Amino acid sequence: MENLLRYLNTLMPLSAEGVTALMPALSRREFRKNEYLLQEGQVCNALFYIDTGFCRSYHVIDGVEKNTGFFFENDIATNINSFGSGKRSGFSIIACEPLNAIVFDKGELFRAAAKVPEIETLGRLCIRLFASKQEEFSSLFKLYSASERLAYIEKHHPHMLQRVSLTQLSSFLGVARETLSRIRKRRAVS
């Protein structure tokens, strides 16, 4: 919980009352590698603060997994649309290695926010940060070629290259694994 509280305090200082109100909404959960945090078709009723490990979100299209995001330590993983609307999730979130998370229960979180206004403000800040990260990666596909997307990841998110498999990274970047290998070879020669 210490890492989470430090993280939350970077978003906004929390009062003792705020921390006390938030605690019933939080639980620690361990996920094994390849264990789902959220499966496609389920309603997302939680935010997952990643304490250790990492996970990925993905869709299955014509039997092929298409990675849409990676979440590492000090990230919040969720399906924001399902969480907000109560509709079923259109994608899955799965642990890529043993993962420890602090789970924010939606119902308890909303009860805490109703009692202590700073919890609602904190929730909006978390959602804004999550949406900002999603928009950053979404823009990659609108603005850059595959080679430029890889360069962007190398510059701004080098930890992804160290921890994410080439197959998963190629899916995320929207290219075949062989294409990604060729791009990396060309870049290494230049």
Question: What do these coordinates show?
Answer:
The protein is of the alpha+beta class. The chain folds into 2 domains: 2-131, Sandwich (Jelly Rolls), CATH 2.60.120.10; 144-184. It is built from 9 helices and 8 strands. The strands form 2 sheets. A 4-stranded antiparallel β-sheet has the order 1-8-3-6. Strand 4 (55-61) and strand 5 (64-71) form a beta hairpin. The radius of gyration is 18 Å and the shape is elongated. The mean pLDDT is 93.
Quick overview of this protein structure:
This protein is 52% helix and 23% strand. The chain has 9 helices and 8 strands. β4 and β5 form a beta hairpin.
The topology string of helices and strands comes to: HHEEEEEEHEEHHHHHH
Secondary structure: helix percent = 40-55%
CATH superfamily placement of the largest domain: Jelly Rolls
**Rg over CA atoms:** 18 Å
Quick one: biggest sheet?
Answer: 4 strands, antiparallel
- Report, as a whole number of angstroms, the end-to-end distance: 45 Å
Number of helices: 9
Q: If strands are numbered along the chain, what order do they take across the biggest sheet?
A: 1-8-3-6
CATH topology of the largest domain, what is it called?
A: Jelly Rolls
Would you state the CATH class of the largest domain? Answer: Mainly Beta
* Uncertain residue ranges: none
CATH architectural type of the largest domain: Sandwich
How much of the sequence lies in strands comes to: 15-25%
Average residue-wise pLDDT: 93
Number of domains: 2
Shape: elongated
Number of separate strands: 8
What class do helices, strands and sheet pairing give?
A: alpha+beta
Domain Cyclic nucleotide-binding: 10-53
Protein name: Crp/Fnr family transcriptional regulator
Pfam family, one: cNMP_binding
